[in-house]
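Exercise 7b. Backbone tokens:
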């Protein structure tokens, strides 16, 4: 599943090309998760601004024509082409512009392309409302995390995955951040001390920054949205390493299941 780093790398890969481009045509394939919400012809001629990201949503400002929100769902990937060929079997959106075409390829079709009058209008407002802070927001502090999680009995792993306090720590990155911070994943979120919230926030930023770096260097040409997570996994400390020795202390890495997701952790380093 594309996580925040994959989405951000995707955004960076096309945003400069399409900034200032004129939208000529919206091509739709099979239905995605939600309907577009406007007749595609009404957006013809719109000038696309610099694509932005919020959580795992990418949004394209279209000036007075509103905004277009994109979500990659489970299997979506964005790419640019010259826009000449008709949409392929798994291509369900084509934004044809005077600077090339942005394509959404999404075999499983959990992705979405949704139009809104503005970010403050539904459906954009509703889709973005529940999102926590951006992990690299300089205004996000450990004490804000501590305060938001106070009294919460669900595990810290689930609190990270929920994304309502801080976005971006999907399954792999949540496991790795908890390992780096030395926090047992089953610890109730409300019991994570301020000092540990500090370590955790630094660890979340560290794993996401490394994933972005991987996607930006070794995988510059990746077309598969799983590219970064895959490359990150190869250098992961605990993720996917059940039964192997912890790189830090040598203890055996364990796998447990939390809310139907695998959690990998070191029972000795993470207490
Ligand atoms: Zn260990």
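Sequence design result:
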């Amino acid at each position: 599943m594309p996580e925040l780093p994959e989405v951000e790398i995707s955004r960076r890969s096309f945003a400069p090309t399409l900034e200032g481009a004129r939208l000529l045509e919206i091509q739709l394939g099979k239905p995605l998760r939600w309907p577009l919400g406007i007749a595609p012809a009404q957006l013809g001629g719109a000038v696309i601004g610099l694509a932005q990201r919020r959580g795992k949503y990418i949004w394209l400002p279209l000036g007075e024509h509103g905004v277009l929100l994109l979500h990659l769902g489970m299997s979506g990937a964005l790419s640019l082409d010259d826009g000449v060929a008709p949409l392929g079997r798994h291509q369900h959106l084509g934004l044809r512009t005077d600077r090339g075409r942005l394509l959404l390829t999404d075999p499983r079709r959990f992705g979405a392309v949704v139009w809104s009058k503005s970010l403050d209008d539904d459906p954009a407002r509703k889709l973005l409302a529940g999102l926590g802070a951006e992990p690299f927001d300089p205004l996000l502090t450990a004490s804000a995390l501590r305060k938001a999680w106070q009294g919460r009995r669900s595990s810290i792993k689930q609190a990270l995955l929920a994304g309502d306090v801080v976005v971006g720590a999907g399954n792999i990155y949540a496991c790795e951040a908890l390992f780096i911070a030395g926090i047992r994943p089953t610890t109730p979120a409300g019991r994570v001390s301020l000092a540990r919230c500090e370590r955790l926030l630094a660890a979340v930023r560290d794993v996401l920054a490394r994933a972005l770096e991987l996607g930006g260097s070794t995988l510059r040409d990746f077309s598969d949205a799983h590219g970064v997570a895959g490359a990150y996994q190869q250098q992961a400390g605990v993720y996917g390493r059940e039964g192997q020795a912890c790189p830090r202390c040598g203890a055996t890495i364990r796998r447990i299941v939390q809310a139907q997701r695998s959690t990998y952790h070191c029972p000795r380093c993470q207490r």
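Instructor comment: The first strand starts at residue 23 and ends at 28. The chain has a mean pLDDT of 93.
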